[in-house]
Structure to design on (183 residues):
């Protein structure tokens, strides 16, 4: 069974191969995942990637990663993909600005001056190194890259290997959780 944790950062899962471009993260495989996934075609059972895709610098890199994920997954393989949600960011800005500021201060740690939801929204979009996805854009992109994708619940999956890996709880983040099947 081959399981890849793509864009692992400092997070390691037992029994998974951790891939990242940052040597400080001490990955098992040091690689720029915006260019390649260094595994043979149809060799990987599961991919997990949490908040990595939005860190890629541009849409061509995102497309390359998703096409490479599609290429390396076996038939019946699955990619679990978590990304910050532009929809949830905007909803929280509109409906829960106090929660959004509290979350920012706890999880991001970049000072807000002034400490307002408007300042936070602008900083979030400016500081995000890549692209922040809404549901429609992510679904279309995944489809273009050969995936049937469905939004799923936090830490839940029909696949035991993909359960319990999510770090960002829904009440403490703006993440959206997806499982993607190559078609």
């Amino acid at each position: 069974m081959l399981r890849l944790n793509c864009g692992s950062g400092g997070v390691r899962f037992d029994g998974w191969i951790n891939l990242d471009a940052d040597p400080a993260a001490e990955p098992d495989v040091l690689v720029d995942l915006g260019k390649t996934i260094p595994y043979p075609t149809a060799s990987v059972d599961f991919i997990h990637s949490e908040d990595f895709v939005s860190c890629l610098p541009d849409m061509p890199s995102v497309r390359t990663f998703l096409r490479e994920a599609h290429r390396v997954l076996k038939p019946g393989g699955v990619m679990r993909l978590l990304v910050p949600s532009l929809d949830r960011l905007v909803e929280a800005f509109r409906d829960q600005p106090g929660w959004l500021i509290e979350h920012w201060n706890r999880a991001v740690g970049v000072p807000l001056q002034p400490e307002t939801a408007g300042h936070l929204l602008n900083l979030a979009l400016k500081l995000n190194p890549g692209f922040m996805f809404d549901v429609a854009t992510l679904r279309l992109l995944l489809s273009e890259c050969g995936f049937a994708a469905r939004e799923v619940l936090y830490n839940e999956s029909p696949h035991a290997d993909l359960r319990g890996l999510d770090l960002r709880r829904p009440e403490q983040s703006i993440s959206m959780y997806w499982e993607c099947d190559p078609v």
User: Anything to note?
Assistant: DSSP finds five helices and seven strands in the chain. Residues 86-130 form one domain. The CA atoms of residues 27 and 106 lie 26 Å apart.
